[in-house]
């Protein structure tokens, strides 16, 4: 091992710590998205040597209106073992604290040694947007031109970045329940964005709609959605939280990242009583069709396997950089 840094391979050595700025500088959609796509397919194969990933266990933080989610994942064939600890909150209007705060731990599956501790916020933002981008690529109509984003927080930004970098839209519209939030968002991104005064104005005629709000009540109604549009529904990740109304859920063909996750955690799925037609991984594996011409909803809850491949990619890039020094 002479000439090589041993800090990140030696059992008993402290884990490397890779924090937000560095994670952001090491993670890029062009490399991340193909890994996510492969991982979603492996997850849906339900082959335990590919992915073991239980539904997230959640501990309520009642006093703070939040939850701690534990998200362990093991990919035996890839030698990847990780867990994310994520706290997410239903913050009051005046709060300046983030809605999601996360840490990812990457371990050596043979020794149990912890290889790395990483900031999980950038990973969560980027892998969630990456999964939604995959859903749009698979399920939107060819030639989609108009993208609407509802909500203008962290996830809105990562979705804007992933969708404008990886797909081509002629128009991007945003809506926020507070107009100043939408205006601030527009100033923070590099491309042209139209601020809309209502959800209806934002989504009428849109080909792809991303819902990334903290709302616990439906904000998007089926009657405003163009037939054949694709909706990536990212917020509302508790069994009693909603972003989409019943008419949209019933009209659409519903896809999810994890069927079990959606049935345990998605208010939009549970309370509307609809069936999840397929996982994204089923479409990737060619087991279920992509109904591009129909109205489709991708219900995203977020999966440990997405964090695992993102964290592993960060670690690989970090090692490559460290070896070059
Ligand atoms: N599916 C997944 O994998 C993930 C889902 N999430 C969820 O996505 C949602 C957004 O997360 P972040 O962007 O990090 O949060 P954020 O706090 O940065 O942004 C939330 C946005 O929702 C808006 N908002 C707040 N209350 C609202 C209401 N009552 N009605 C409409 N809009 C409202 C805020 O103004 C803001 O624009 C949260 O529900 C979060 O739990 C977050 C991470 C991963
Ligand atoms: O997958 C994830 O990290 C989360 N899903 C909902 C809130 C955080």
Question: Can you walk me through this structure?
Answer:
Homodimer. Binds the thyroid hormone triiodothyronine (T3); T3 binding inhibits enzymatic activity. One of its GO terms (cellular component) is cytoplasm. InterPro entries: NAD(P)-bd_dom_sf (IPR036291), ODC_Mu_crystall (IPR003462), ODC_N (IPR023401). The structure is a single chain. With 325 residues, the protein is of the alpha/beta class. The protein has two domains: 16-123 and 305-323, ornithine cyclodeaminase, domain 1; 129-302, Rossmann fold (3-Layer(aba) Sandwich), CATH 3.40.50. It contains eleven helices and 14 strands. The protein has helices spanning 20-26, 29-44, 121-139, 154-166, 179-188, 199-203, 246-251, 259-265, 267-272, 280-284, 304-324, and strands at 16-18, 57-61, 66-75, 80-89, 100-107, 114-119, 146-150, 171-175, 194-195, 208-211, 230-233, 253-256, 278-279, 296-299. It has an eight-stranded parallel β-sheet, with helices on both faces. A six-stranded mixed β-sheet has the order 1-6-5-4-3-2. Helix 3 (121-139) packs across helix 4 (154-166). The protein is globular and about 60 Å long. The structure holds 1,4-dihydronicotinamide adenine dinucleotide and 3,4-dihydro-2H-pyrrolium-5-carboxylate. 3,4-dihydro-2H-pyrrolium-5-carboxylate (2PC) is lined by residues 86, 88, 100, 124, 237, 301-302.
